[in-house]
Specification:
Number of helices: 13
CATH superfamily: Rhomboid-like
Number of domains: 1
Strand order of the largest sheet: 1-2
Structural class: mainly alpha
CATH architecture: Up-down Bundle
Low-confidence stretches: 194-199, 201-208
CATH topology: Rhomboid-like fold
CATH class: Mainly Alpha
Order of helices and strands: HHEHHHHEHHHHHHEEH
Radius of gyration: 30 Å
Length: about 260
Amino acid sequence: MRCFPVTVLIASLAIVAWLCPAVTALLELDFAAVAGGQWWRLLGGHVTHFGAEHLFWDLLMFVVLGAACERKHPRAFGIALGGLMLGTSIAIGVWCPAISSYRGLSGLDTALFVWFLADQIVASAQRTRWKAAMLWATPLVGLVAKLVFEAATGQTLFVDSAAFQPLVEAHLAGVVGGLVCVTVFRTQRSRDDGPAAADRTTAENEPAGSPQRRPLGQSVGRVFPATARRLRLRPDPIRGGHSTPGSLPPQPCRPDRREAAT
């Protein structure tokens, strides 16, 4: 719970809303109520559902994808999720004016799915791992096929939608929101990290268990102690390695004995 507080909070609210019909009625995205001033429904409508099966599949995807995205973007995840909630609700209201109410986490699930995969694709491409990038892009092809199926048949792929009307527009809004998140928050992260990001990326790319890089003099001294003694390598307290005679600080000049005697 400490690692994924936002994900746990949203999942808990979804369960409470399903167990308490009064909470569902209070949070459901009712556009008439929103127009009357109940703006919180733009956020709360995503944690309400039409049944146990609807809740199960939406919540399963949200917990897995939410934990993955929150682990990668712990500081930005709460802000991003709030923006995705608002953006999806507004998109439904604009694109589907005939819809009076909306429930479900599926729009957010789609956004998190795209955000997570796009993050992996960009990271693999930056490291020139093109095979890995193509592998991460494969699920996006499946997502496009799923959206085409839902648009053509009017049915959802995993949930029985007999009790409600599936909205492909919510999933399309999620795709757009996920792309916006990977663009905005990845750019912001690079700006905040600065040159340290490159050092961390290099460290992350090192294979597990690989020896830590040491200064040349230190490595020579450990492997060839006799050679180190011949070269008079001495410990360098400043840099943590060894220094050669040429790199030692200059010694103060001592007066000549003959001059001192005179």
